[in-house]
Design brief:
By secondary structure, the chain is of the alpha/beta class. The protein folds into 2 domains: about 45-200, serine acetyltransferase, domain 1 (Orthogonal Bundle), CATH 1.10.3130.10; about 205-310, UDP N-Acetylglucosamine Acyltransferase, domain 1, CATH 2.160.10. The chain has 11 helices and 14 strands. The protein is about 50% helix and about 10% strand. The strands form 3 sheets. Strands 1-4-7-10-13 form a 5-stranded parallel sheet. A 5-stranded parallel sheet has the order 3-6-9-12-14. Strands 2-5-8-11 form a 4-stranded parallel sheet, with no helix packed on it. The chain starts with 5 loop residues before the first helix and ends with a helix.
Length: about 325
């Protein structure tokens, strides 16, 4: 068998690679054809949608405004505060208005709505949202104070703002909630799902959450679209405030109805509790214990706990062997 030189080997490999590369156009043809199929999803020949990375950038810019001085490397003081906020707000206005206009125009054309003059409306809604930022800062300040009051491990407000996933998730939720109630499509859900992916806390932007809200630890928390939560509520990791699973037909009927529970003021819900259903109301000042499954209402000032389980204590295997050996020796 004739042995190939290195140069000949390379030529053969290049030739082989070209043969494989020739297969690509036929695969492209199949992909193009699949775009005309009703069974697949694409966004071809439609208006551009808001850009996910731009939405994430908007959240970062808002953090710089809502928590001035926390997430920058330079000093911020009374001398440069006005200049700093002016720069940040101007930049935010430009970016946010562009994305809101894209969202409105896409929704309008996608659903064949009458013209609503997307550009001026987008700018108007952006200014309306920016006007809400001072009140939003005050609301978030109450959430941060509730975190310090509710968690003995917290050493101070700085630690909470920098490191608590619950505060990060609540911050994004409160931003998205304001945009949602301005009837801006797509953007609020993109924001909260981004926070969900980062913090493991899933809060729908349509949920109504009162002041001084505290999520401790947070991983696995789910708060559904039609939830109504009162003031000074505290919940722990793994809590689900969800809807009861329904058939397709029932799901369609209830799409615009209340499907998630209401939690009144000063309620505490411990880890891994599941509370389901639109008619379920947890009365004020109640305490829901860990791992509770609740699908009906409870009156105010109620404690709901699982009955104490029977625990079985047994010696580890090596201890059992030592006891047996001791018995033999005796």
């Amino acid at each position: 068998m004739k042995r190939l030189k290195n140069g000949d080997t390379c030529k053969n490999e290049i030739k082989s690679a070209k043969n494989f590369r020739k297969e690509v156009p036929s695969i492209v043809d199949e992909l193009v054809a699949s775009c005309s199929s009703a069974g697949c999803f694409d966004h071809v020949s439609a208006e551009p949608i808001p850009h996910r990375e731009a939405i994430i950038d908007i959240l970062h810019r808002l953090a710089l405004i809502l928590y001035p001085g926390y997430f920058i490397k330079t000093r911020l003081d009374s001398v440069n505060l006005e200049y700093y906020l002016g720069q940040q707000m101007t930049s935010l206005y430009e970016t946010l208005s562009e994305q809101i206009i894209l969202a409105i125009r896409h929704d309008c054309i996608r659903h064949n709505k009458p013209c609503i003059h997307c550009d001026p409306l987008g700018h108007e809604l952006t200014v309306e949202f920016l006007r809400k930022l001072p009140a939003l800062r005050k609301m978030l300040a109450m959430d941060i104070r509730a975190s310090l009051e509710g968690d003995p491990a917290a050493k101070g407000y700085d630690e909470i703002i920098f490191s608590y996933p619950g505060i990060r998730a609540i911050t994004v939720y409160r931003i998205a909630h304001q945009l949602y109630h301005l009837n801006i499509p797509l953007i609020p859900r993109i924001m909260t799902e981004y926070a969900h992916s980062r913090n493991g806390i899933d809060i729908h932007p349509a949920a109504h959450i009162g002041e001084s809200f505290f999520i401790d630890h947070g991983t696995g928390v789910v708060i559904g679209e039609t939830c109504v939560i009162g003031n000074r509520v505290r919940i722990y990791q793994g809590v689900t405030l969800g809807a009861i699973s329904l058939s397709k037909a029932e799901c369609r009927k209830l799409r615009s109805k209340k499907r998630h529970p209401s939690i009144e003021d000063d309620v505490i819900i411990y880890a891994n509790a599941t509370i389901l259903g639109g008619d379920t109301v947890v009365g004020a000042r109640s305490v829901i214990g860990g791992n509770v499954w609740l699908t009906h209402s409870v009156p105010p000032d109620t404690e709901v706990f699982i009955k104490k389980q029977d625990l079985i204590f047994g010696a580890k295997q090596y201890k059992k062997q030592a006891v047996k050996q001791k018995l033999r020796q005796e």
